Amino acid sequence: MKVIADPGKALARGLGAIREEFQVPPGFPPEVIAAAETAARRVPDQHADRTDRPFVTLDPASSTDLDQAFAIEPAGADLLLHYAIADVGWFVADGDPLDREAWRRGETLYLPDGKAGLYPPQLSEGAASLLPDGPRPAVVFTVRIDPAGLATLDGAERAIIRSRAKLAYDNVTPDQLPPDFVELARRAQAAEAARGAVRVDPPEQEVVLLPGDGFDLAFRPRLKSEADNAALSLATNLAVAAALHAHRTGLFRVMAEPDERAVAKLRLTAGALGIGWPPEMTLEQLERRLDPTRPAEARFMLAIRRAGPGAAYMPWRDGTLPWHAAVAAPYAHATAPLRRLADRYVVRAALEIANGHPVPLAVGEAFEKLPAVMARADTLAGRIERAVVDLAEAVLLSERIGQTFHAVATEADGKGAKVQLCDMAVVARVTGSGIEPGAALQLRLTAVDVVRRTVAFERV
What we know:
Blueprint: H1 12-21, H2 30-40, E1 48-49, E2 57-59, E3 68-75, E4 78-86, H3 88-91, H4 97-105, E5 109-111, E6 114-116, H5 121-127, E7 136-145, E8 151-161, E9 166-168, H6 181-195, E10 204-209, E11 215-220, H7 224-246, E12 251-254, H8 260-272, H9 283-289, H10 295-307, E13 312-315, E14 323-324, E15 329-330, H11 341-354, H12 361-397, E16 404-413, E17 416-421, E18 427-431, E19 440-449, E20 454-459
Parallel strand pairs: 1-8, 2-9
Antiparallel strand pairs: 3-4, 4-7, 5-6, 7-8, 10-11, 12-13, 14-15, 16-17, 16-19, 17-18, 19-20
Helix pairs in contact: 1-12, 2-5, 6-7, 8-10, 11-12
């Protein structure tokens, strides 16, 4: 999940109000903490020794809840990705206090001033995290990547691993990574393009202090190391999804294409941001041309993300293909069990079927219940993210009351219109009749309420 970064703590006061409004848990109940401390002392006894493999992790420098580590080796023309996933299922038993609390939360919630974890830090940032300070239990998926980038699940096992290094996106060097890391990522990305997949991943927004006084919302472009690392996770999730679907079980992430109304709105937004979009060009074709280092195109990527129908979870159903439009394939979430409840059960199912065992009854039952639980958690996370964006926009505009802005109406009804500011990644509403979608408007900022996270414009 993308959230606005706030290193200067300009949003601190408002973030406290957001945490209170959305009842973001400040910690864990004592019985859950006690269960985590007990679980952290559990000694693995069902795991193969794979400490000889040169696993490393690659994450933001500040991350301590490390779900994934990887090692890569050639196998003829293919590449074998050994993708180690934190073995959360080893520490958490069905129905125990940790499990019950995780079902209440659903996923980790992220805000600029910190996160509310799915599991207590004794596990998520300690015994279960794949940190390089000692051996850790993991589920290791071996994924075969052929020269065309097709990913298949060759095997899965519980194993003890030892990460050699905690690498960071912003300072990793090629010599620190496996020799075939870039090639594997290239193959996965080539396969993605061949499928016609278009995944829009807008750059992170950051509140920055301007020289002298005031604030601005800037974009931090995605680093190549981030994109390459994401390709490894994508390949693993695709391979797991294919294996689950072949065995007529699983929990899948599904998403439809944007509808005609959403595309029409995006065309207006593109015009407002000065992005050329010929009538004969599809949204998918335009997406492949977007450059996140250009501010206007970065803003448009955010607009695309907000305009889509949203993803959901779906258990396996006979006769139904669980399709994810952005990935252009059946897709599952398996690589972040420290942060998403659903992943723990997908990992358990994939581990069993890869070893010729039936999926446990408790896992199959969980697949039926998880879509509603995860939808509730995703909705809460989305509402919090929207509130953070509204807060950042209010802080950003608080010094500009009385100024005039160019905007384009993207939606309209009898009472007014939703507008996209042309020079900022801000979507607002203005009242008034007779506004048609696509209309160019001059708006004056009349009021900002940082506490309520609202801004008000009037037509000039």
